[in-house]
Fold these 2 entries.
Entry 1:
Amino acid sequence: MICTELDRLGIESYLQNYRDKSLLRFLTCGSVDDGKSTLIGRLLHDADQVFDDHLSAVRKDTGKYGTTGEAIDFALLVDGLQAEREQGITIDVAYRYFSTDRRKFIIADTPGHVQYTRNMATGASHCDLAIILIDARKGVLEQTRRHSFIATLLGIQHLVVAINKMDLVDYSREVFDRIKGDFGAFAAKLQVRDIHFIPMSGMRGENVVHRSENMPWFQGSPLLAHLENVHIASDRNLVDLRLPVQLVLRPNLDYRGFCGTIASGILRQGDPIVSLPSGRQSRVKSIDTFGGSLTEAVAGMAVSITLEDEIDASRGDMFASPNNAPNVDHNVEAMIVWMAEEPMLPGSRYVLKQTTNTSAVTATDIRYRMNVSTLSREDAKALTLNEIGRVRLESMRPLQWDPYAKNRRTGSFILVDRLTNATVAAGMILDRTTAERAGDRRTRSGDAGLNLQTHKSSVTPEQRTQRLQQKPLAIWFTGLPRSGKTPTAFALEQELYRRGYAAHVLLGTNLRTTLSRDLGFSGEDRWEHQRRAAEVARVSCDAGLIAIGALIAPLAADRSQARTIIGAERFVEVFCNASLEICEQRDQTGLYAAARQGQLRNVTGIDAPYEPPQNPDFVLPTGTKSPEDCAKMLCDFLEQRGLLKKM
């Protein structure tokens, strides 16, 4: 295939075409013996990416090491270590490179055994997509959950759940649907926005490169087609300029350049820039590369920049935009994957390497350990091999960092043993919030909480309903900022009052100045804000009132949590459907403009995700209809459904 394309295009055009292709890094993971190496081998074989001599060698090795009888053992295309071939397992991460007409690929085949979890985490650290293998005979196992959690913890936002070995369960759609439901229930607790399920047989090559004729009930794309078309361009952070300084280049007296690889953002000639941690500011005079000078450079490019002013910066410092700088602090909190035989204990000291910065650090506290099967938090006095936990670290040098969820390059680090120089942990820095500090206060006062008791009112819900002559209800608005939630909520309150109902509005912005004034806009703070609003709505419903919640509620998990707290029988999810373009046109406060310019962070729809409801109870056309019309439409709908009626 390569020779044909080369002959058709010529060497120069072929190389240019290859350079222009986008690159997808992905890994395979899951429990042991789920077929990860076999899947990759079959993918390479069916995509014509295996040379004839390599294939001949694998045919010979199949008779010695293979587990597939006379058929080619495609796992041997990937498993190269002698111990891997003898045991039929993957031990170390194996990388393979190939390309198709659409895209270039780097595959990381990671081991499934628990004892090699650290190898899996290493392979996942630079990937854009993870293929989670599940044996159709066994279903979702603990190691499946462990690898899925680690993949999302490491910032991978695209999962392909490959339900493998379907030929061994007679290509049963019921088995596929059951496993899909089991994994979906677990994945609802993960922060991941894209999950794709594919039934396949890696051994037989069904739904790998070519569509399976034995599973006509599956109408989705085969694996390779999905990999070629999955959209990852928006995953790159082009908003926050971060340039860690690797070295200072002085080839002569007239040139002083600061060299490094741009971690994120866009750098332009003439841009204002700040050096951290000193805080000195200047402007970019020139951007130089091996191929010559540029007026603009983007993330991933190695550059040398000169400045208009003399600034003292050295390895470990960082350049950023003055109005959009990272955090500079000696203390960080992080989730870490522990990779050493010796446990991590509070007070232990290590060397931290983050971007080009190296510093001695002390583990001051282990906050908790994650149970990867249930995603629950457990108290821990130490972290042992392959465990995942949250820790506090104190650094000798100031660190320039962003939360890992925002910037994978500046939010990640490794810990190194000071004596052996061995890597002992991989870490992801978290956004510290006042909500978490409030959680610390609740934890410290937890002993008193053991003596608390709840009490039930002697006034029954039926008595309240009879007195107020209405059914209690929680109407939960969700939508992008400026989608019309607030004016529609107050218009609905007026319409309900006109029809004789007692209702009140729980406005997200109002709650943030009162009940949630201690919260910010991180993921955890948003979750806590939604929880508090739902608890207030529950109390209102218990009192027999109609509560109208007008919040962004960006994630499906947040809205599901509200439904659970309030009660599904009295919860109505309403989607205020207005496009992002309309919302930006309506914006009179400059919210979206500031987010576009990088002056504000965590703005829903720009750099914070929004998950539109898949099956809302009602959709309001707030992008085209007035709030009053929408309120009447909603009231009519609720009365027709019997959800809103006088008793």
Entry 2:
Amino acid sequence: MPERESHSGATLVSSPSHAPVVRGWKDLARLSLGALGVVYGDIGTSPLYALKECFAPGHGVEPTLDNVLGVLSLVFWALTMVVAVKYLVFVLRADNHGEGGILSLLALVTDQGSNPKGRGETGARRRSMLILLGVFGAALLLAEGMITPAISVLGALEGLEVATPLFRPVVVPLAVGILLALFYFQRRGTAGVGAVFGPAMLVWFVAIAAAGLPKVVAHPQVLAAINPVHGLRFFLANGVHGFLILGAVVLCITGAEALYADLGHFGKRPIRLAWFCVPFPALLLNYFGQGSLLLARGSEVRDNPFFELYSGWALYPMVVIATVAAVIASQALISGAYSLMQQAIQLGFWPRLTIVHTSREASGQIYLPEVNWALMVACIALTVGFRGSSALAAAYGIAVVSTMLISTLLLYSVARHLWRWPIWQALPLALLFLTFDVMFLSANVVKFAHGGWVPIVTGLALFTVMTTWKRGRHLLQEQFSASKLPIEVFIADVGRRSAQGKLPRVPGTAVVMTSQLDGTPPVLLHHFKHNKVLHEKVILMTLVTEGIPEVAAAERFDVRELGEGFWEVVARYGFMETPNVPKVLGRCAERGLRVEASKASYFLGRETILPTGRARLAGWRKRLFVYLARNARPANAFFRIPSNRVVELGAQVEL
């Protein structure tokens, strides 16, 4: 079985379903520890700012016994219903060959055409709408990725302000410095530091649990918050103010999407075991401990109830531990953004970017420079612009809940049309989850003008780019298909010309890259028309992205001889893989096609796209598509083709 490396640095053995194989309790324990560092980094640092925001002066909720019990009840049931029930029990079931994440869920939605109920015009329209929702959800996740590092690092360093107000002026500069260092070292890969993520986060969870436990023992009445009646009473007593508190409560479940996104790295059992053994009890102890502190000291808790759990000398070490935990949470989101963008490129929703593999053994260890520097600029701009975790909280909540709501809708579609659940089984479950999602989103809408617009505007901008690129490529393919010449006709003509001595065939191999499986590649026609010569061996190479994370090595490629020295090679890749053309050619000898990849000539087409055609696309979107196409990474670099063996032939195409 093939091996690969997780974000935590552990080498995993992939099963045919792409999920790690757990051979015994040692594997389970190791993977569960790794999940602590990658999966639970974001949600694990939520206590830094979540409860503080619930009792912020601007919300008008005083820390009385009823209010504290009400808020703690909302926190408890949010963690239970959204994280434990929705994600761990149901969403994790929607794996795509063992892989998770919103684009994996989107790929499952696009596979619904195999179900008779998913066919026809109605089914196609439904899938189109769900695909647009999924793309927007992916865009929001990228927007969330730029907020997480900023709010996590700021939230950790704000502990210095609790120690003394003298540190207040240095919090933002320190945060900027840490973020600069974090993004600078991304180019070196995360395998080395990833090995310590799990143990470091274990220290974090033990530390926050140890701080909360004594307070809970001193004020055990806070345990009554487990009763949901206290949450209902809180709503009734506080009215609109009580409902709007949900906009802060949602901060305790930020990072829940990571449970699903990192499914392929650890598997269901380790993720579930880790949650119930460490993060869930530790988070509850800390939140309940903060609640006990608020009951004991009330309005005297003026800064941050999290850091005020630590007194005297313990505060400074905790700031250090919190900063390390924030960096780990940020690292997980940054690595997730790389993977998400790689999937978007492979699925045709984003132009080609530079993808650097930072590990020879681990295909999942990647670094995208353009994404890295864009995230760095965005994170630093948010840090300097908002200057505090409280100001960023509004922006964070909307991004998180919007993505969760989209995941619920996609999950319902998968349950109905792929798993074929009856409506009486799928609908009540979806409505239950939507109730939480809609309530949280409604409470956050009022924060739109106070920072909530940031992820929405960013998400819409990314969504526009993704859909424009996808639509533009589709329209170009339609144009090429409409004027294509069947390859059989072209080969027959080549045979006649060769027999008449009118077509020279020069020694060597030409590899013609094409996206058409049944037509003559335009670049080949262009070459034939102008140079009036062909190589002795011509390979038509087509790369296909499948709707699965990885394609098994045995199913990687097919080879077919077409006659007259022509061969067809179709290479298949998953949406989490990066194509490698020379490597595929090197393996073609297994199927009877011998070629020296290093000595072949690779023919690529480079279209100059003009936004002056009659394609069904708005003018501004045509211009955007042209700009994206001009700035996309060259195909030879993306496909790992040696640059000194490439022949590019240009053509003008009106869109």
